[in-house]
Every structure is written in C-alpha cells, then in structure tokens.
Amino acid sequence: MSFDGVFTHAMVGELNQTLAGGRVSKVNQPYDNEIILTIRANRTSYPLLLSANPTFARIQTTQIPYVNPVVPTNYTMMMRKYLSGAILSSVTQPANDRVVNLDFTSRNELGDQINLRLIIEIMARHSNVILIDTSDMTILDAIKHVHPDQNRYRTLLPGGTYINPPAQDLRDPFTGPVEVLTALVKDYPNETVLAQQLQKTYQGLGKDTALGLARQLHQSTDSDAEFTAFFKRFETPEPTLVVTAKNKTSFTAFPYIEDDGTTTQSFNTLSSLLDFYYQDRAERDRVQQQGSTLIHVVKNELKKNRTKLKKLQQTMAATENADEFRIKGELLTTYLHQVERGMTSISLPNFYDNEKPMTISLSNQISPSQNAQKYFKRYNKLKNAVQYVTEQIDKTNAEITYLDNIQSQIELAAPKDLADIKLELQQGGYLRDHEHRKNQKKKRQRVSKPEIFQAEDGTKIEVGKNNLQNEQLTLHSAAKTDIWLHVKNMPGSHVIIHDANPSNETLLAAANIAAYYSKARQSSSVPVDYVQVKRIKKPNGTKPGYVIYEGQKTLYVTPDRAFVEGRMVKQ
C-alpha cells in the first residue's frame, strides 16, 4: 500500500489516540525536508515525524535515532518560537485527502491564547509542512517555500494566505457507498478495471487499496455491506508488512493481499510498521542527499584510478615485448653491412630462433647504425619502466581498494556516519578543492563513537562504521587480548569482542554483525576472520583503517538484520 488517503485515515486515528492533549517539548529538523516534534503525552515522549520527502512523505511517530545539525535552520527556529510548549488539541484529515491537520493551542508574547495549525500535505514532490495562524489563515512558515513563478494559484510563503489544495470531485469512502456501487461491480467483472473505476469515484484510494477493495467486492454477494465493512477495518487497523513471492515488500493497515507465495508480518502500531518498512529506504535516501559530494568525489577518484590502472597495464604488456627490440638491435648490428640507408624494412636471419628470417622495420631518414641504436634505446626504456610501472600498479590497486572501501562505507552508512567519512576524505586531500577555504581556522573534529552491541551472555561488542572509527577502535580502544573480526577479503567494519575467551554463541553473534556491516550484507555463508587484537598490525604509511593480520580462524555466517538490530544497544 502507498501512503494514500485511507492509510492516512488510519494513521490519524492512531495519532489522535496517542498524542491528543500532549505538549510539544522539542522541535528539531534533522533533515532538509523533515521535522520532528517531540510531544509529551500520557507520561511518555513521542517523536512525531512529519516528512515532506518527495519519495517517502508521511506522518508517524518514530523510534529511529537521528542527529541534528550543529546550527538549527530558520524554519526550525520559527517552529520553536510558535510551537514550543504548545498543546496538541486534535489531529484531523479533511475529506480522506492526503492532508493532516495538527491543531495546537499556544500563547503569544503577550500571554494571549492563539490557535495554530501545522499542516502536512503528503503529495509526492509537492509535499510540504506548513504552519498557519488559524485566526486569519496566515502562513507563518513552510518547510518548502513555493513562489509565484512556481505556482500562480497557490503560493506558500510566510505572510501569505493559506489556500487549500485544489479539491477533487470525489466522494469520501468513509461516508458510505454510492448508489451505483452495485452496478459498478456488475458492469466491471475485471478486478483491475473495477479498481480504476473505484479510484475515479472515491477520494484517497491508492492503486493497491483499490485492487484489494475490488477483489473483495467481487467475492461478496452484498456489495454495499462489503464496502462498509472494508472501510470500517481502517478504524481498528492491524498493521501488516506484506512480502510477495518476488521478495517485494509493502505495508497495509490490515491484511487483505492474499496472493500465492505472499507472507505477512504483524506490528503493534502503524508507526512501528512504517519504521520497519522505511528504515533502510529513508536512510539510503538521506545518505544520498547529504553525502552527494562525497559520493561524487569517490566515484570520480575511482574512475580516474581505474583509467590509470588500465594504461599502466597496457604499458606493462608492452614491456613483455622488450626482448624483441633487443634482438632486432643485435641483428641490425651483426648484419649492419647488409643494411643500406633509405631502406624501410629488411629481413634478417634470427640466430636466436634457428636462423628463421625476422622482418625489421627501418626509418629511411636515419643511418643503419642509428636504426640499431633506436631499437636498443626502446629496449632499455621498456626494461627500466618495468620496476616503475610495477610500483605504480601496486599503488593504484591499493588506491582503488581504499576508494572501493570508502564507497561501500557510504552505501552502508547512516546519515550520522557521513561526518567521519567527510573528515577522512579531507585529511586524505580528496576534498581539498571542495571543502577547504583559505585563511579559515580549522577545528579539530572528534571521531564519533562506534556502534555498541551486546551478546546473549552480556558480552560487549563494538563496531566501527568507517575507517576513522575502525582505526580508533582496533588500534587504541581495544585491549590486546580482545577478539577482532572482519569479513574476509572485502570491505567491511572492524568488530571487537571485549572478551579474551568469548563463547561460541558470542563469536557467531559478532561474526553475524561483521557480515551485516560489510559489502556482503545481502550474501549468504559469508566468511568472517577472527583473531586476537595483538596480532593486528598497521603498516607504516598505509591508509586509515588498513591493517594486516595472521593466525586467524574463519567462521561462515549468513547476515540476519533482525538478529543484528535485536543485539544493538541504544545510545
């Protein structure tokens, strides 16, 4: 199911039950298009996410941790000015549209009570979060400003008047079936066609919701009663994650998709369902947005080094023919009396190959002796190049391995991890043209703390999410007797078990975590090396996070996301 009007209806019911009467204690904007209000209700603090993300727009309470920017945005400051301490009186949805109104009561600077409305419009790339003063419908601010040159009919700027989104001439399905419903079901026996007709008749039906309704209407003998019962279930939702036979996932307010091979998973609340469904998708999107410069730099560096490696390999291949130039020079020297100036080629017996004739190209602009010396010079140049090219190939391969590792870390990173990766690229000189500014005093940036996990027996396990964390963890924080783990022969995190003699269960748990935080996350039977920290060495002059080791043993595990998340310790 998409976050359509009927799912919004169910979410509004959940939020009203959970948050109505609560007070706003915090306002944060961790990401450009998303704001989080922490609402204290029923002796519990609920982080309420309002997302105007073009792909993942939604409203829900969330337990996914986030990191706030160092300096709050102007929008954040405006929200804090008006909503800090405000009481949420109600959560409503107009006419089953993908719009949610959060009505607040607050006090202005003079102590007078004012009524505010925070509106989230869930409309793909047009999604927005808008704060208005309901006394005169004045816009106080919007997370996305819409100027007249973008939309003449509906401008969304501070100080302007709020205009509702254009109304559609469709019926609210929660008011009951239309008179022609029975005829529609009879006239359109094809589920897909009936679903399209239902979408043209009722407000807020996504494609999958309409298909589910059409299927149930066709299976029932009483269309009106089935229609009413279908929408009544949104009042008491049964949050369900649906996984198809092709391993595609979707979410529904209650289970009504029943195809062959489909499996379902139930959740206690719609918000916890969305947390599970969107966690990876939203994280990847945020990383792509916030880490766009890093991604661009790493991709360009990888492309440059792979091109360089290709040219070096071509040069190395040419050196394999170096002896041929030496032989040609020696043959010309031996049979110099047969070579005449002005010749462009000559065939001479090769005494290195049973006197077989060898054709030798000549320049008619130089003497026979100079032609022979030319071949010797080319031989010596290629021979001398072998050592240099070999060194350059090794360095370029190491650079590609390092950059590939950085790219994998960005792919696996949470938004909070990007600061360390950015710092590392700055220290390595990759971002000097992008981030450094002349005469700017540099502040020393602290490396963030690694993720902490706990084994079944309580043993502490730490995971470095990037090279700076890996180096700090392995070379400085871990005891020499601790156990170090890393996925074999591919990019991944350093994992430390803070125990000299961990149980087999703890070793397997740590290996699972190491495999999950690696490029092999989607693979099965992943090899993970483990060894005591005292056997880990860092060669001089190597890149951050690079180590060598010996005496390791190997475990084979299949990464399990649910297991890993279950062992994580919230910080």
Written description of the protein model:
With 571 residues, the chain is an alpha+beta fold. The chain is 37% helix and 21% strand. The protein has 14 helices and 22 strands. It has helices spanning 5-19, 74-83, 181-187, 191-201, 207-219, 223-232, 270-290, 292-319, 322-334, 368-412, 418-427, 467-477, 504-516, 561-567; strands spanning 23-31, 34-41, 44-51, 58-61, 87-92, 99-107, 113-121, 128-133, 138-142, 240-243, 249-252, 263-266, 345-350, 356-361, 451-454, 460-463, 483-487, 495-497, 526-532, 536-537, 548-549, 553-557. The strands form 6 sheets. Strands 15-16-18-17-19-22 form a 6-stranded antiparallel sheet. Strands 5-6-7-8-9 form a 5-stranded antiparallel sheet. The chain has a 4-stranded antiparallel sheet with strand order 1-2-3-4, sandwiched between helices. Helix 4 (191-201) packs across helix 5 (207-219), helix 8 (292-319) packs antiparallel against helix 10 and helix 9 packs antiparallel against helix 10. The radius of gyration is 34 Å and the shape is elongated. The two termini are 33 Å apart. The relative contact order is 0.07. The model is unreliable at 433-441 (pLDDT under 50).
Q: Report the radius of gyration as a whole number of Å.
A: 34 Å
Profile the largest sheet: 6 strands, antiparallel
* Percent strand: 15-25%
Gap between N and C termini, in Å?
A: 33 Å
| Low-confidence sequence ranges | 433-441
Q: Structural class, judged by helices and strands?
A: alpha+beta
Question: pLDDT average, as an integer?
Answer: 89
Q: How are strands sequenced across the largest beta sheet?
A: 15-16-18-17-19-22
> Total strand count, please?
22
- Tell me the helix content: 25-40%
Q: Treating each run of at least 4 consecutive H or I residues as one helix, how many helices?
A: 14
Cα shape:
elongated
